[in-house]
Design goal:
about 30% helix, about 25% strand, Nuclear Transport Factor 2, Chain: A, alpha+beta, 4 helices, globular
Length: about 160
């Protein structure tokens, strides 16, 4: 059985920065499932990190380590369509700035049906794995102060 491999640049960002060995014991680089886990982990960390910028400053900022993460969103209301659109813009911007492996990104923010203070964020994107373009579609539940993965994306 053959396992597709991809270049080492698909290792999780924090693992690369910390010098963690991301290869499997025998030196094989991430396969499709490992790549998917890498994307989920980095996206989870990104959405759980807060930067010091205001929402408006963040929407107009450049990629810089000091701007990593989302700005505080506690002023946004999940019951406001305008605020849900703003949340979509924020998630779109944070992915554009800090998760370059995701392409053709679309974000949909919806009020959580049973939690009036939370937002469901659905992400639809494409990702290049080796020579293939694959679909990546996780959903996250953004609680005040934390994020959780809600739906595992389809296998890549």
């Amino acid at each position: 059985m053959s396992t597709r491999t991809a270049p080492s640049s698909i290792a999780p960002l924090f693992d690369r920065l910390c010098g963690v060995d991301f290869t499997i014991g025998n030196g094989i680089h991430l396969d499709a499932k490992g790549f998917q886990s890498s994307l989920l982990l980095d996206l989870f960390r990104l959405l759980n990190t807060r930067c010091d910028l205001t929402i408006d400053e963040f929407l107009n900022c450049q990629a810089h380590v000091m701007n990593y993460g989302l700005p505080a969103t506690n002023t946004l209301s999940p019951s406001s369509k305008t605020d849900l659109l703003k949340m979509e813009q924020l998630v779109q911007q944070v992915i554009k700035l800090f998760e370059p492996r995701l392409k053709q990104v679309r974000v949909k923010a919806l009020a959580h049906p049973s939690d009036t203070k939370s937002v469901m964020v659905e992400i639809q994107a494409a990702v290049v794995f080796g020579e293939q373009m694959l679909r990546f579609a996780p959903s996250f539940h953004l609680h005040p102060g934390q994020v959780e993965l809600v739906v595992q994306p389809e296998a890549v």
